[in-house]
TrEMBL record:
It is found in: Membrane. PANTHER family: EPITHELIAL MEMBRANE PROTEIN-RELATED (PTHR10671), LENS FIBER MEMBRANE INTRINSIC PROTEIN (PTHR10671:SF9). It comes from the Eukaryota. InterPro entries: LMIP, PMP-22/EMP/MP20-like, PMP22/EMP/MP20/Claudin, PMP22_EMP_MP20. Signal peptide: none annotated. This is Lens fiber membrane intrinsic protein. The chain crosses the membrane at residues 66-87. It is a multi-pass membrane protein. It holds the Pfam family PMP22_Claudin. Belongs to the PMP-22/EMP/MP20 family. It comes from Balaenoptera physalus (Fin whale). One of its GO terms (molecular function) is structural constituent of eye lens. PROSITE patterns: PMP22_1, PMP22_2.
């Protein structure tokens, strides 16, 4: 059982790293603007080789930012709960840590 938990924890760790990278990157949308390539992320947009902060407040960008941050926090807490599942402590006998970690990871993907 511990090998499955270790494999799942490793996959969760890789997924969380990729989630944080996806949140921070500037390549959510790529397009061609006035003959030059441009790309845009959640936090800034780049025209050519210059990047600028997103100053306009568009509701769906703000909602996406908020949900990506919440998802990253849920995934990080899922990893912490998953690591705690390896500890054999007699407290919390009705608290299934692997199941709880799975629920938290499921919530982070929604």
């Amino acid at each position: 059982m511990y090998s499955f938990m270790g494999g799942g924890l490793f996959c969760a760790w890789v997924g969380t790293i990729l989630l944080v990278v996806a949140t921070a990157t500037d390549h959510w949308m790529q397009y061609r603007l006035s003959g030059a390539f441009a790309h845009q992320g959640l936090w800034r947009y780049c025209l050519g080789s210059k990047c600028y902060l997103q100053t306009e407040s568009i509701a769906y960008w703000n909602a996406t930012r908020a949900f990506m941050i919440l998802s990253s926090l849920c995934a990080t807490s899922g990893i912490i709960i998953g690591i705690m599942a390896f500890a054999q402590q007699p407290t919390f006998t009705r608290f299934s840590r692997p199941f709880s970690a799975g629920i938290v990871f499921f919530a982070s993907s929604e």
